[in-house]
Amino acid sequence: MIRSLDPLVRLTQKHVANPLHRAMMDRGLPVPGVALLETTGRRSGEPRRTPIANGLDGDVFWVLAERGTNAQYVRNLQVNPHVRVKVGGRWRSGRAQGAAGEDPRRIARLMPAKVTATTARLLATDLTVIRIDLD
Question: How many CB atoms lie within 10 A of CB 36?
C-alpha cells in the first residue's frame, strides 16, 4: 500500500464504513462479505464490535488484520482471546490465536467476499492472520 494513503483509509474505515456496517448489522441487515467481531476492551472491559471481512471456514473463522498489532481489536485479542463473531445474523463464540505460519493469500482465497479480502491485502500495512476456533 502507498503509505500516504494510510491515514485517509484509516479515517474512512473508522468514521464511515465501520459505523455504517456496525449499525446495519446491529439492526439485523446483512452486509455481504462482512462479519462483526466482538472483543473485550483491554482497558475498559467493555464489548467492542468491529466489522471485518467474513472469514468463516467451517468451525474456524479467519481474520486478516490489515494493520497487524496496530489494530485496536488485535491488541484486545492479545489481552483476552475470548471473542464472539456474528456471521449471517448468528453469534458464535470462540478463542482467537495468532496464525503466523498461515499464508495470507491462501486465507484471502477462503473468504466468500473476494473484493473485501483483496482490499484487505492491498490496503494492508502489516497484514496479520488470526485464527478463531469457534465453539
Answer: 20
